[in-house]
Design brief:
Two copies of one chain form a homodimer. Chain A is built from 18 helices and twelve strands. Chain A is of the alpha/beta class. In chain A, α1 crosses α5 and α12 runs parallel beside α13. Chain A is globular and about 65 Å long. At the A-B interface, α1, α4, α5, α13 and α14 of A face α1, α4, α5, α13 and α14 of B.
Chain lengths: 450, 450
């Protein structure tokens, strides 16, 4: 049968192709903050190819900010033997099985466990499996998840190390309760979308004039929350916060984000110094590993809320942030933890503890991915969008075949089947590092100058 | 001056050479436990070469258990641009500067931060710098550290994210106090060595007969503590624990090690079920990320002690384990965190909180490395070896140029300058994967069979 496209029943994964994709964002200071002065937004990108007649591929990626993207690609490559030859139908019927296999590889586990480069690689691959599953089901991922049987969703969650806070019975109960009113919420989602907030005005590298202009634009675009990067210089932060407040008025929330810049004591002092200007939340005040530190910061800066999550490595740390009452806002990231399956666990934990989820996004393709998870959360778990917003940054969407669409400050629910993870082929060709057209020309230019 | 060996003042790092070294240990079930059934003990190995006339090289490595060792090598390779061209003299006078540079690379930081593959790579390189520094100083590392000025040692510690638990002033105070009696302790160390305990009898894959034989041998060899792997099957564990107790008698401590097998509730139940057989500590009862979980386990299993650390990712998690009173025994690992500098921070935290340090070792070369840190701890911080033991496993020492020497259950203090990290050149040649002589023959054999 070699060479003949197969029906879905017999189809197998035939290749796991990886790409080191980098965009030269550091040249514009897009994305600059107190800890990341010059990011080159990048993706360690993976495509699962099959011999099925339908021609569907599973796409996924890890977001990085430049150097080390090759290490991330090497980590995805190390997972290839777990995937090639597997039954497409079995994989898509139970993405949790590949999640368990990859996390359970006893030798690879030593490189984490469940954290850092190896875990993000697992997340990229698991997300690619979900992309393939949703494409084959002819559904956008948010809709596939929202209409899935609660029992099946529970089977997709790894309860190891979180069972002291969330049992399978808890999860089933939450998902069954979440069914009430699903149709009405889905209609509302399709009509209004899911609220977003924008970080575009607030990067550290921008002038006050640019901050003012972009903040006014954000309000005009319908956003009710913006975010400023802080933490490099307190006087600058006070001035920028006043500038932003003057631009947006009192009715718009301004969150602030320190990107882990501070120790616990500094975080409390600095945030208190900005408190008169009514910041809505302080994000990443200190190390993402410091659960007890976040709890101390939260006690020290109330009523300013504490938010974190974009660098939180896995469900086990999120569990403790909730147990320790360390956060007011939980910020999932679609491409940091072990993919959709682990994010299901985290959304369930947040629902159990009654903490709103406001995802981290931006970067490359993070908006595209995470909107699906928030829409599922709304339809099947939280039941509300009150005090819930998805971060939005207007960067690099043009590289995706189904980019996010914003309307009146809301994410429009995507209707194209899949996880919105697919990059345009010409972008993969242009920005592959170091041999894509852009980088080949760029590196040749640098050699000429040198 | 190209090609001419340079004096130390002008010497530079000229190359960062990496090696993927793997030993086929899975074929003997050495090292098998409840989570790691078939490890191939491996090292992502790095050599810093210089153009100094003295010919010294800095050697370091990350320990892994097989698959993924290539990813770890790729991560070390990503650090090369930070090192090549640097002044050898400046580097060795201030290894903390390279530690700060590597941890502070804002783009690479995204891949952690300070955890997993990227952080272990930093640890390998930082340890190689210390190896070079100690060789140039003509001292074994333990002695270089023990005689270093307290102010300089404090300058080598990164207090970011731990200053709420340990300030530079705290550290200076501890190190100055530790000076009292240094000469007497050094004489005692040179005479008696540092106490070890052995895990060699207790691997899960061994028969009861082999367990009995090796446990009796351990006592005959002078060890006063052994360790058993547990967590796969409770009845087996009860039988093996009784077998071990019968072999060693009541005067020898038996620690047990679950290698993260359990959830919090299971850890408490299982350990209580073994408590009548008087286990000294329960090691890694659950996820190394679960600080609050360890605290719950400790409350639940007292008076059995709780020990962890070999998979604890960095000083920030150790800080919280101490703050939460979650552990009775802190187990540093020489090659998991960011190298000697971060281990200095962890040893200082343990001293501040009064918790004894009993290092994880075994693997490839972990005994060789970590003995230096415990000896420094004894001479300069803890001032005692009471209730302190370094793990010892009799594996793979023959591949090192200065292997550990055990005498009467004690590690003999090494006198050769350096960090004891140097592997024999013929081992590098034989076990390089996949092209070293052993693997080339092995892989060819497998192809023939297939």
């Amino acid at each position: 049968m070699k060479g003949t496209p197969l029906t879905a029943t017999h189809a197998r994964i035939t290749a796991v192709d990886t790409y080191d994709i980098r965009f030269p964002t550091s040249r514009e200071l897009d994305g600059s903050d107190a800890m990341n002065p010059d990011p080159d937004y990048s993706a360690a990108y993976v495509v699962l190819r099959t011999d099925a007649a339908d021609g569907f591929e599973g796409h996924g990626f890890t977001f990085t900010i430049g150097r080390g993207n090759d290490v991330q690609v090497a980590a995805i490559d190390a997972l290839r033997p777990h995937l090639v030859g597997r039954s497409v139908q079995e994989l898509c019927a139970d993405p949790g099985s590949v999640n368990r296999d990859l996390i359970g590889d006893s030798q690879l586990r030593w490189l984490g466990p469940e954290k850092g480069v190896m875990h993000m690689a697992i997340g990229a691959v698991v997300n690619a499996v979900w992309d393939l599953a949703a494409k084959r089901a002819g559904q956008p991922l948010w809709r596939l998840l929202a209409h899935a049987e609660p029992e099946w969703l529970v089977s997709q969650v790894d309860f190891r190390y979180i069972a002291d806070a969330l049992t399978p019975e808890d999860a089933l109960h939450l998902l069954r309760e979440g069914r009430t009113g699903l149709a009405e919420r889905e209609a509302a989602l399709l009509e209004r979308g899911y609220p977003g907030y924008t970080t575009s005005p607030g990067w550290l590298g921008y002038s006050d004039e640019k901050l003012t202009r972009l903040a006014k634009q954000a309000v005009a675009d319908g956003f009710t929350q913006i975010k400023l990067k802080v933490g490099a210089d307190l006087d600058d932060d006070l001035r920028r916060m006043r500038t932003a407040r003057a631009a947006v008025g009192d009715g718009v929330r301004i969150a602030i984000d320190a990107n882990q810049r501070w120790n616990v004591g500094e975080a409390i002092e600095w945030t208190r110094a900005l408190a008169d200007l009514d910041p809505y939340w302080i994000e990443e005040p200190t190390s993402p590993d410091d659960i007890l530190g976040h709890a101390a910061v939260r006690r020290g800066v109330a009523p300013v809320k504490v938010a974190t999550g974009e660098h939180v490595q896995n469900r086990i740390v999120f569990k403790q942030l909730l147990q320790a009452e360390a956060i007011d806002v939980l910020q999932i990231d679609a491409a940091r933890v072990g993919g959709v399956n682990e994010n299901l666990a985290i959304l369930l934990l947040a629902a159990k503890f009654g903490v709103p989820v406001c995802p981290h996004a931006g970067g490359v393709g993070l908006c595209e991915l995470v909107q699906h998870l928030s829409m599922f959360d709304y339809l099947a778990l939280s039941g509300t969008t009150d005090d819930r917003v998805i971060e939005y940054v207007d960067h690099l969407h043009e590289h995706f075949t189904v980019p996010v669409v914003m309307r009146e400050g809301h994410y429009v629910a995507p209707l194209t089947p899949g996880f919105s993870a697919t990059m345009r082929p010409e972008s993969l060709t242009e920005y592959r590092y170091p041999d894509g057209a852009f980088w080949a020309a760029d590196l040749a230019g640098r050699e000429e100058v040198a």
